[in-house]
Amino acid sequence: MLRFVTRQAATRKLLAATAVGALGLSLAACGGDDKAPAFVAAGGKQGAATPQPTAPPVPFEFSVTPADKKKDLPVSTEIGTNVKGGSITSVKLVDKAGKAVGGAMRDDNTSWVPGAPLKYDTDYTATVVATSTGGQAETKKISFSTRGKSGNDVGSGLYLFNGKTYGVAMPVVVEFTPGIAEKDRAAVEKRLFVKTDPPQPGVWSWVSTGTQAYYRAPDYWRPGTTITVRAALEGIPLSNGRVGDQDRKASAKIGDKFEMKVDNKTKKMQVLKNDKLVKTFPVSLGKPSTPSSSGTLIVMDKQEHTVFDTFAELGPEEGYRTDIDFAQRLTWGGEFIHSAPWSVADQGVRNVSHGCVNLAPDNASWLFGQTKVGDPITIKGTERKAEPGNGWTAWNQTWAQFVKGSALPVPANLRPATTSAAATPTPTATD
């Protein structure tokens, strides 16, 4: 392992644009049987049916936000809806030129979200129609205007390239510079939309610094899944006076299941494809003074040829510069899988690296040709545990641990049964 690449430099290589999540409108209805059976009255005589009590109908109430003629609103403004005794029939938003703005309702029907950021310094008119359970329609119309563009942005990035294919452990990763304060995370999280096809519901979880948020499901994505993401952050106001810099969208595919498992005890790597063992390679891990990280890590980046340069970090006496082939990044701190012809005699026998997973050149070349960004590697038995946030560590937690990082309430169907590690089937490395 060579800790020479700054996080900022690595981030620039990995940043990508991102993809709109669909928001559905749900409708609900209820009914009952109006026939009651005959009954036998006290004393044994048959009497007439007793009418069953029914709940009175919910009064039809309907309101929208923002308030009419509201000014200086952010371009992330949504059309809020509150309906009792009925449902939203339609929402139409137009700008001052009469051009319609596309959008969709949130799944919980609390608001209508524009499909793209609104324009700065622009007047808008929203027309919202709701219909009661009895068929009564009501229309509300509001106008509002947006504020000008702020120069005090929070930088953001989405680690997902549109149209690319990723491994089954690829989390959706959104990064923020500077990090998002804890009190602002719920508002930001509400503007992060993910859709998977076939559906595999998941949860967002924040690293403690607020610099990254990960989205994943309880288990690895199914091969063939399409993930569509929208980080709808442009103009969203934060408590420190900053605003989100831009909307990011992407749609990507999940490829075959490909996993690597490394055991420090045997100093071997097992390679599995679609749960079948296909290769076993000897490895050399980090020596005791610079151990490799135990845990479930993810291939973050791949470079067929690169240079490891540690002079800036270690200085002229301990630093070095080395050409490296078949490098696959696992952590921000500089742990990689890579070819190491100088340690072939040690591979399978002893650990001599600076924290990287060393492979023989032919083995490293073969593995490089098979892996995808997003493929998981589980390392166990080393002197150090993987540090949260040092790499994409979304899978180095049980599901019960992961959901604790959400800034919003976790849906009932995604809450773990218990808080123990046994409550999730997620594979987690042990030391």
UniProtKB/TrEMBL annotation:
Residues of the L,D-TPase catalytic domain: 258-380
Ribosomal protein in keyword set: no
- Identify the keywords attached in UniProt to this record, alphabetized: Acyltransferase, Cell shape, Cell wall biogenesis/degradation, Peptidoglycan synthesis, Signal, Transferase
* Active site feature: 338, 356
Q: In which pathway does it act?
A: Cell wall biogenesis; peptidoglycan biosynthesis
**Which InterPro entries does the protein's record reference?**
Big_10, LD-transpeptidase, LD_TPept_cat_dom, Transpep_catalytic_dom
The UniProt entry, under SUPFAM superfamilies, shows: L,D-transpeptidase catalytic domain-like
Record's keyword annotation contains Signal: yes
In the record, which residues are listed under signal peptide?
1-28
Entries under PANTHER family matching the protein = L,D-TRANSPEPTIDASE, L,D-TRANSPEPTIDASE YCIB-RELATED
Return the protein name.
Answer: L,D-TPase catalytic domain-containing protein
